[in-house]
Amino acid sequence: MAASPLLDTSRLCVHTITTQPWPVEEAIERYVQAGVAGMTVWRQALTGRDPARVGEQIRAAGLSIVSLCRGGFFPAPDPAGRQAAIADNRRAIEEAAALGAPLVVLVCGAVPGQPLEESRRQIKEGIMAVLPDAERYGVRLAVEPLHPMYADSRSAINTLAQANDICAELASPLVGVAVDVYHLWWDPHLEAEIRRCAQARRLFAFHVSDWKTPTEDLLNDRGLMGEGCIPIRQIRGWVEEAGFSGFNEVEIFSNKYWAMDQQEFLQAIKTAYLRHV
Amino acid sequence: MAASPLLDTSRLCVHTITTQPWPVEEAIERYVQAGVAGMTVWRQALTGRDPARVGEQIRAAGLSIVSLCRGGFFPAPDPAGRQAAIADNRRAIEEAAALGAPLVVLVCGAVPGQPLEESRRQIKEGIMAVLPDAERYGVRLAVEPLHPMYADSRSAINTLAQANDICAELASPLVGVAVDVYHLWWDPHLEAEIRRCAQARRLFAFHVSDWKTPTEDLLNDRGLMGEGCIPIRQIRGWVEEAGFSGFNEVEIFSNKYWAMDQQEFLQAIKTAYLRHV
Lengths: 277, 277
Prior knowledge:
Largest sheet of chain A: 8 strands, parallel, barrel
Oligomer: homodimer
Number of domains of chain A: 1
CATH architecture of chain A: Alpha-Beta Barrel
Number of helices of chain A: 10
Shape of chain A: globular
Strand order of the largest sheet of chain A: 1-2-3-4-5-6-7-8
């Protein structure tokens, strides 16, 4: 059953990367003016800034901090590379704690030519290595399964079933999943796996955008909601039936949208959110 | 277990689209000179020609005709569109029979925005509608699952499990699957599903190419075998352990390779085939 239309923007969160031409200070101001309620902060938005100070600015403006994007990229061909990845994920957790973000989203990683099974083993080891840090800071971690077109170099976790499996193996209340419609909409097991992760109380985040026909770039040609073929409202229905009541996060990578006036783009996001999410 | 290296080109088949700058007559001549043993003919290679005559030329040159590409694209928003698709698939079966191709490969189709379940239902209906033609001409049909990045507009069948399911429902000895490493390499259930389709004697075709990092175009940037991250030899091992002994078909869509000297490209295919398939 599809969800009812959203009547307001009280659960609308926007990722800083969606409007990346704006420095984070401008994004805060513009989001608040537009009635956006939450912000997910990408780490590059913090470059040259004190995360604790940025966190204060976001909260002072009245926005909720939904998550920090992103940790992950655990696999590497050599132990030194894997240790460096673990160290970087520890920094991400510290940054999230300083910022006041309750969640770090993990794009888990893959190494071209390395067997996917080996990458999955390294991902599990990497998450286990940083779990004590997550516990210490009280920061949760969300495994985000990525579309199979990113299995070469970005993530060896490509379905929600795989994300659920790794969470079940890790068996920590701090490790859950992020459901992104762009990555998962095609999967015939999506509804069942959403129920599975919700039953285990590990549905930590819900991301929306759309899949355009044609898609001209594998990475940076995502569509605004309603512009493509993803049954977003139906998937939101599944997520909410499973008990999720968190933010609907708009995460759009788009050379086309980054090139346009960001204020107009933000208004278009708001309109598309109310019409199509 | 990975397969042993191939020692000769006696099971090497090349798709006419792989060397599409060549008219089919030139492709026949060049393939034979290079020691290629089989040819899969794309329908556009037959434009303006009599399929029976082209079939005679291919056989007279000593090449095996492996399949005709492609039928499918059954889903449409309206009944007239679906009837037109069925009529076109009947023509494809007739062309295959005239050519002397024992198999038509089906790229099953999808309609942007139409629920994938509905497209799958229309695919099943479409195949059922043309089955009497397949029986009459003794031509087999191979459902080719396509990578999930084509779920918007090219195929609502995106895993080998789905292809096996639809074949099991149709329950005809004339309907099987084509396993293409480019579409399926990322799937954690691939080995098990290859066993399943082989046990049911429905593994009809095996296609190879490679997945490059980065991939710059969703459609026409496939790699030569060895150029990317797909464990081709391992997958060939699964296919052969399951009893497949047919051709290894090289199907590469690549703006880059189509722009180069096709004779040099064919030599590169042969070298890559012996080293990496």
